[in-house]
Write a structure and sequence with these properties.
The longest helix is centred in the C-terminal third of the chain and has 31 residues, at 74-104. This protein has helices at residues 3-24, 46-70, 74-104. By secondary structure, it is mainly α.
Length: 108
């Protein structure tokens, strides 16, 4: 197995570990590292919110694992991982902001 494929699989497993933590968390979580998650009184259903965020991260991690397992060419795997990280996180942020937060944040 090439280093590129190993890195893709390792990133995927890290994302899946994060999603497992999010799934079992009792407090609200966020995908952003540098900001605080929504407060408990701002979320309509904390468990469903955490599960939705967990599913998002699980799917993102599974994409990396799929790339690492299925793409055998090192160069193609490298570029796909780069494209999954950079534009992929923008897509994850867009889904988080426009779907998950919109659905579970209380309206003011």
């Amino acid at each position: 197995m090439s280093v590129e494929r190993g890195v893709a699989i390792a990133i995927g497993f890290m994302m899946i570990c994060v999603s497992i933590y999010y799934y079992f968390s009792k407090k609200p979580v966020t995908i952003y590292n540098n900001s605080n998650p929504p407060r408990i009184d701002q979320i309509t259903n904390i468990r469903s919110y955490n599960h939705a965020t967990s599913r998002l991260m699980l799917i993102y991690g599974m994409v990396f694992i799929f790339e690492g397992l299925m793409i055998h060419d090192k160069l193609i795997c490298f570029f796909l991982v780069i494209l999954t990280v950079m534009p992929g996180i923008v897509i994850v942020i867009a889904i988080y902001e426009s779907v998950i937060l919109k659905k579970y944040l209380k309206r003011r």
